[in-house]
Design brief:
Strand order of the largest sheet: 3-2-1-4-5-6-7
Number of helices: 10
CATH topology of the largest domain: Rossmann fold
CATH architecture of the largest domain: 3-Layer(aba) Sandwich
Strand content: 15-25%
Largest sheet: 7 strands, parallel
Structural class: alpha/beta
Radius of gyration: 21 Å
Helix content: 25-40%
Oligomer: single chain
CATH class of the largest domain: Alpha Beta
Distance between the termini: 16 Å
Number of domains: 2
Number of strands: 13
C-alpha cells in the first residue's frame, strides 16, 4: 500500500532558532500517527542541536555541516524541487522559514505541489494553498486576492499535547525562577535576567536560596559561570535539555522571549516576563499583554536588568491572579496540530 508523503522545509540556525523545528516536529507527529512518511528538508545538518528526530527522514540541500552558501529563494526552490522529484509522489510540502515566502512557494506551486506555510510575521506575502499562524488575521494585504485557506489564532498553535493536563502550580511566594531565551540568545537577555536576580537578592526582595534554573540553547556559544553570580546560591544551568515542560511547570515565574517557549508557558499557565527579541514576536506578545496574562518588558534593545527588576516587582504579588485568569480563558488547548493535520488531509485528498 502506497503511503502518503509530506515534506517539511525547515532550518535550524542562530537567527531562526529551534522554534520552527519544534512546531514542525509537533505537526509531523500527527502525520506519522496516520501512517504518512515524513521528510524534513533542511539546508544542512545542524551539528550542535540536540533535537527530537523520531520517525523523521532527513534530506539536505548541502551535505556539509557548516556551509557558507547563501541561496536566493529561486536557487533554494530549484534544489528543493530536485529533491522532491527524487522522493516521488509527495502529497504536501510545508515550509516554516523566514527566508522563504512568495517566490519560493510560487516555484513549487507551478510544479503542481500543494504548499502550506507556517508564519508568525504579519507582513510577508505568500503564494500557498494553506497558511498557518498563531496570530489572528495574520494576512498580508497583497495575499487577499490569492486562493488560500487561512488557519489563524491560538486555536492553531502547534504545541505538544504533553502540555495538556499538567496542573498549574500556585504559590503566594516566588521560590523557583526559570530563565530561558531560546536557542541562541543573541542579545544577551540571560545575563540581564541574572543581573536582575542578583539585585533582587541584594535588596532582599527575594531570598538568596531561591532556585534559579537557567536554560542555554544549543546555538548559544556563551557559558554561564556560577562564580560570576556569587549572590545566587541555588543556580542551576542546563544546556539543551530534552524539553522544557518540567522546568516550566516547576517555575513560579519565567523570564523568556516572545517565541515558542512563551506559548509553552501560556499552555502551562505560568506567569511570564517577556522580552521581545525579534520583530515576529511583537504581535503575539501584544495580544497576550492586552489579555493581562503576561508582562512585557519591551524590545530587547531597550530592556536592561533594571527594567526586569521593575517588571518583577510589578508581577511578584499577583502571580496567583494571573494563573487564575489563564485558567478561566483556556487560551491554548493543545489541539492546534490535530486541527491543522485534519485540514491538510481534507485539502490533499
Amino acid at each position: 500500500m502506497k503511503r502518503d508523503k509530506v515534506v517539511f522545509r525547515v532550518d535550524i540556525n542562530a537567527n531562526q532558532g529551534l522554534g520552527h523545528y519544534k512546531r514542525c516536529y509537533v505537526l509531523a507527529q500527527h502525520f506519522l500517527m496516520q501512517g504518512w512518511k515524513v521528510y524534513f528538508l533542511m539546508e544542512c545538518p545542524c551539528p550542535n542541536a540536540d533535537i527530537k528526530t523520531t520517525g523523521i527522514n532527513f534530506r539536505y540541500l548541502f551535505d556539509t555541516k557548516n556551509t557558507n552558501a547563501k541561496l536566493t529563494q529561486t536557487e533554494d526552490a530549484i534544489k528543493t524541487l530536485e529533491i522532491l522529484k527524487s522522493l516521488t509522489d509527495i502529497s504536501c510540502v510545508i515550509v516554516d522559514n523566514y527566508h522563504l515566502d512568495f517566490v519560493w512557494e510560487k516555484a513549487l506551486k507551478q510544479q503542481g505541489y500543494f504548499v502550506g506555510a507556517i508564519d508568525d510575521y504579519h507582513d510577508r506575502e505568500h503564494c500557498c494553498d494553506l497558511k498557518i499562524s498563531d496570530n489572528d488575521a495574520n494576512c498580508f494585504e497583497g495575499e487577499l486576492g490569492h486562493s488560500m485557506v487561512l488557519l489563524t489564532g491560538l486555536e492553531y498553535v502547534l504545541i505538544s499535547s504533553d502540555h495538556c493536563g499538567v496542573p498549574a502550580k500556585k504559590s503566594n511566594k516566588i521560590n523557583n525562577i526559570l530563565i530561558t531565551y531560546g536557542a541562541s540568545d543573541l542579545t544577551n537577555e540571560t545575563l540581564k535576567a541574572l543581573s536582575c536576580i542578583e539585585y533582587l537578592i541584594r535588596s532582599k526582595s527575594i531570598e538568596n536560596d531561591v532556585c534559579i534554573n537557567v536554560v542555554l540553547g544549543p546555538l548559544d556559544s556563551k557559558g554561564i559561570e556560577k562564580k560570576n553570580f556569587p549572590l545566587i546560591k541555588n543556580l542551576l544551568v542546563y544546556r539543551s535539555p530534552d524539553g522544557l515542560i518540567d522546568l516550566i511547570s516547576q517555575a513560579d515565574l519565567v523570564f523568556t522571549a516572545g517565541g515558542n517557549t512563551l506559548i509553552e508557558c501560556i499552555a502551562l499557565r505560568r506567569p511570564t516576563i517577556v522580552t521581545v527579541t525579534a520583530d515576529n514576536q511583537q504581535s503575539i506578545t501584544d495580544k497576550l499583554q492586552c489579555l493581562d496574562v503576561i508582562t512585557v518588558s519591551g524590545q530587547s534593545k531597550s530592556v536592561s536588568w533594571k527594567t526586569l527588576v521593575n517588571n518583577f516587582l510589578e508581577v511578584a504579588d499577583r502571580t496567583t491572579p494571573i494563573i487564575e485568569a489563564m485558567e478561566r480563558m483556556s487560551l491554548i488547548d493543545c489541539l492546534g496540530a490535530e486541527r491543522v493535520y485534519q485540514k491538510i488531509r481534507s485539502l490533499t485528498r
